[in-house]
Amino acid sequence: MSRTWETPGGVHPPENKLQSMTQSIGHLPIPGTLVIPLHQHIGSPETVDVTIGQTVLKGQKLTTAIHSDNLPVHASTSGTVIAIDDHPVAHPSGLNALCVTIASDGKDQWIERTGIADFRRCGPLDLLQIITDAGIAGMGGAGFPAAIKLSPSNDKTVDTLIINATECEPYITADDAAMRGKTQDLIQGIEVVCHILNGPKRVVIGIEDNKPQAIKALRSYVQESSIKIVPFPTKYPSGGEKQLIYILTGREVPSGGLPIDLGMVCLNIGTLIAIKRAIVDGEPLISRITTVTGEACGVNRNYEVLIGTPISHLLTHNEFDENNCSRLIMGGPMMGFSLTSTDVPVVKTTNCILAPSHSEIPVDTPAQACIRCGLCAEACPVSLLPQQLFWYAQAKDQERLEAHNLFDCIECGACSYVCPSNIPLVQHYRSSKGEIRKANIDKIDADNARQRFEFRKLRLEQADKQRQAKREARRLVTEQARAASSTSQPGSSAADIIAAAQQRAITKKASPDQQKAKLERALLAAQSRLQEAEKRLIEATINGSTKQQTICSASVESARQKVDQAQHRLRELTD
Amino acid sequence: MAFKQISSPHGHNPQSTSWVMQLVLLSTLPGFIALSYQFGWGTFINLIIAVMTSLVAEAAMLALRNRPIAFYLKDYSAAVTAVLLALALPPLASWWVVVVGSLFAIVVAKQLYGGIGHNPFNPAMVGYVVLLISFPIEMTTWVTPISLLPEGVQHPGLWESLSIVFAGNTPIDGITGATPLDVFKHSSGLVVDQIYHDEALFNQASFAGVGWEWVNVGFLIGGIILLKTRIFTWHAPLAMLGTLALMSILFWDSGSSASPGSPVMHLFSGASMMGAFFILTDPVSSAVSNRGRFIYGSLIGLLVYVIRAWGNYPDAVAFAVLLGNFAAPFIDNYTLPRTYGHTARRKATDKGEDE
Fold it and tell me: Which ipTM score applies to this complex?
């Protein structure tokens, strides 16, 4: 047994995991249409590479990369692209986003797949490229591109690979089901990652002790190998990356840092299986295991679901009773977000669809006043003082919020869960974080604007100074000249000045020959413009609209007038 | 069909604030029973007057402040304030004493500061201190514990008690007397052994002081219930009791005439246990972090001893708690817990990034 460390706080909400584990992983019929959002990961989206009406094969790339943090998306089945437009997607904001809609042809025909059975012969960079091309984003929740996590960095070496098999959220059993049903794939995925990481010293699978069957299944595969399985007591939120790292190693990821700062990489079960499939089978990430559960569903079960499958498809195949459903949640009850429509598709990070009944998750009672009882601080896994954060969030005291480490809040919801006054604490923190981020952006903008303004002021001042200096110089010159002339010609009069001015005017005026040449050039240019305009008018009368014709005839008219003017001036000069 | 958009977490622990308050009320029961057994009907009458006054005052203030009355009354916080005040007041105190104390606690100390969750001072203790300063005679007249009543004298019955409280009838001789803390305050010339030998309050006591020891045991039992149900953490109460014990050991002075009393006497006399488990643990007016609550508790323990030993009042919990309330925001500033991923704890008034 390896030593484990206990995180502070945490809660024990009802687990509700058994109901979805009575059957093995199921498969659903291919839906008629699949809606594939272009942006399913952290990082910028790619550009669409298909057109409406185009036929696509299962596994075909739908996008091309423009940035290094791009991840492609793929067609989850074969069919025809019928739309590329905004569609409701799985996002807490409830906003729409650009999606490719595919009408499936039912054949489910794959592209050519080239798997690499002996991946150990390939270099890490080649394998990472395959993982990127397969569109693999962290499937635990955040959707961070897996290849970026695994990429070697100059100054940091990975000595510990942590496999997150915790699945601490109630109701969700997708990873549990995968560990039991796809154990071999998972182990192979771990081997691929170990190869990419050049053989980390420690490989640890962190798993809560409420999954004994998964632990048994894993043990049967890893007895001989160097992979350590570390079960630890069930407590929410042990599955947060930072919490898990502390539980398994006793070390803390620095605030604002990443596990790589400690020489660690943490990967989720689903991600590892996807990596195995991408490398060994040559299959991009087009499906995932999703738990469909909650009392509003007659059947509670895990499914291997195609990415892009509308939630409504999942629900109708699970005896969904809409009237008995209090809310529709993507993810678990602690951190999942509510969906407003069943049209949204399953994405790479969709580990659970929870449709609770009214009695299961009733409507929240109104919030009472905070009595600062401190139950929230007892529950906080990162040792914040939620009651103080709430106080300052209400006061919009951003300085105090930051001093109380608001940005270390992982939004696990443990504080809200235990709050006897039923205050939606996490919601307050999210909104405060947003306000502070916006204030910071505004501050940068304001700083930029101020800098620009100050620079402009400086530039104008300098220009002004230069002008003054020039003026001063001229004044000196004229004074000197005047002084000189007054000494030579004491009786200098206005007549002299006028004569000098006339002289200057004459020299300034161009000679008649030059003027003539200039006017002739102008005439030629005007004539050629007239020709152009006439040509366009003819074109417009043949195939243009009446509006175009009017515009063209007007421009012909004005060109003709210009030609007349030029001729007139030339004649004046020559006469 | 469109579903509701609701922020996570979905679902909730069934514990509610009114449940917390009800549990606190229930946990005062052992202390209440001990008080009633030792001192008669007075505490019960205090309780009824205080609760009724407080609820009426709370409702009236809520109405004036345009707040939903039923919603706030259901949180039981006014009832808790009333019960704690009533348990602290001397039994058989005149009705107007209880009414004035309750009104001051609810109207001034609680509602004028913004109601539940916003009072910087413990309302019950504000009420108590106002009474103690304004009506010292009424507030220091305590009933004699049952076992020390003179031969043939009994505590007044319910009707008699009511007539004392409401009609101002004077109770018969011999049913009022000093408390253990009074005795120590006023027998400065005697060594502790002499006091224990002379005073019936001590020579007939089981371990601390007749009557009072059981009242404190009652509140200790209630406190342990609340500790076990995790209504509060051990930090404030244990720090207070620990500091009080430590101080009385340090200044025990081997029982000389200058000694302010033994640790056991201090822990089980006056409002020690009630203060530790029911007053200090009022979360609204105390420090917030566990570390902060430990310091807060220690400070109050220290102040209780200092006032008892060298101050003008025999008991000191109310004053000490109010002084602790003053210090709570200051303590909070320096006792933020170290957050995950940070190398050091921060101050609440820190500006900008740490480290």
Answer: 0.88
